[in-house]
């Protein structure tokens, strides 16, 4: 497996980029694999969430970047802010038990669960109100139609 230092030496020696399909993923492949836009990947990089290796202008994503992107996308899906996601990711220690990170995830998850449950209740109420409005309007329309006219 080629690491970034080896890839840099190859590039300095004039060799081609490392085999991206094996050790690294280029930005376009990463976007397709995770069904995100190139712009989203660049945005996550600008926000410090992803740090792909660079060889000239080419971004190369390693396995760790893929794991981070999976975590970013999960965080977004469940409604975490980017700052919450970054805070959690920044606590990751690949050599540690990550207890502090896990505690933070649990705390933020509990807070988000409360938020989502309130939203679900509000949506349920809105649906009930909308159904009532539709029934009222339909009944009103039925009283306005002349008998025998179905149009």
TrEMBL record:
<dbReference type="GO" id="GO:0003700">
    <property type="term" value="F:DNA-binding transcription factor activity"/>
</dbReference>
<dbReference type="Pfam" id="PF13411">
    <property type="entry name" value="MerR_1"/>
</dbReference>
<keyword id="KW-0238">DNA-binding</keyword>
<feature type="coiled-coil region">
    <location>
        <begin position="99"/>
        <end position="136"/>
    </location>
</feature>
<keyword id="KW-0175">Coiled coil</keyword>
<dbReference type="InterPro" id="IPR047057">
    <property type="entry name" value="MerR_fam"/>
</dbReference>
<dbReference type="GO" id="GO:0003677">
    <property type="term" value="F:DNA binding"/>
</dbReference>
<dbReference type="InterPro" id="IPR009061">
    <property type="entry name" value="DNA-bd_dom_put_sf"/>
</dbReference>
<protein>
    <submittedName>
        <fullName>MerR family transcriptional regulator</fullName>
    </submittedName>
</protein>
<dbReference type="InterPro" id="IPR000551">
    <property type="entry name" value="MerR-type_HTH_dom"/>
</dbReference>
<feature type="domain" description="HTH merR-type">
    <location>
        <begin position="24"/>
        <end position="91"/>
    </location>
</feature>
């Amino acid at each position: 497996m080629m690491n970034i230092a080896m890839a840099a030496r190859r590039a300095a020696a004039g060799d081609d980029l490392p085999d991206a399909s094996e050790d690294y993923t280029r930005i376009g492949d990463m976007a397709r694999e995770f069904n995100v836009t190139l712009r989203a990947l660049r945005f996550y990089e600008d926000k410090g969430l992803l740090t792909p290796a660079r060889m000239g202008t080419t971004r190369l994503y390693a396995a760790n970047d893929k794991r981070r992107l999976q975590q970013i996308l999960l965080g977004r899906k469940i409604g975490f802010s980017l700052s919450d996601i970054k805070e959690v990711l920044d606590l990751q220690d690949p050599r540690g038990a990550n207890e502090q990170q896990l505690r933070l995830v649990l705390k933020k998850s509990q807070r988000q669960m409360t938020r989502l449950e309130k939203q679900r209740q509000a949506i349920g109420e809105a649906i009930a109100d909308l159904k009532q409005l539709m029934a009222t309007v339909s009944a009103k329309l039925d009283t306005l139609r002349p008998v025998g006219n179905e149009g």
